[in-house]
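#struct-help
A.M.: can someone run this one for me? Single chain, 127 residues.
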Amino acid sequence: MQTSKNTILITGGATGIGLGLAEQFLKQDNTVIICGRRENRLKEAKEKLPALHTRVCDITKIADRINLVSWVLESFPKLNIVINNAGIQHNFNLNSPVDISAVEKECDTNFIAAIKDDVFEASRTSI
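D.P.: on it. Structure tokens below:
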């Protein structure tokens, strides 16, 4: 794999592993786009790494996913790598009732949002 001159989108890129990956990819002369739910975290990441391109996006929301795809394809037509790093984790006490909405949010963020076909359809109409 070519490790430089790529255009890379990292979901969940404002903190943790995503931000660490963004930093390393920037050091290797790549264009790096990160997205995340929290605008304040994206601003902090941009302050730390001014070369980053940022976008607020909650990947569990269909409109956010479609807007992200449209924006990236228009603004960064050379996009060639996507790293789906967005994720959340809740701690559940299985000895008491579980909040099913929290379970659904975790599953939607960590898995389902990444494979929904609405993003594919949006990208096909934007090309």
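A.M.: thanks! The helical segments are 16-27, 39-48, 62-75, 100-115, 117-126.
D.P.: also worth noting: The two ends are 25 Å apart (CA to CA).
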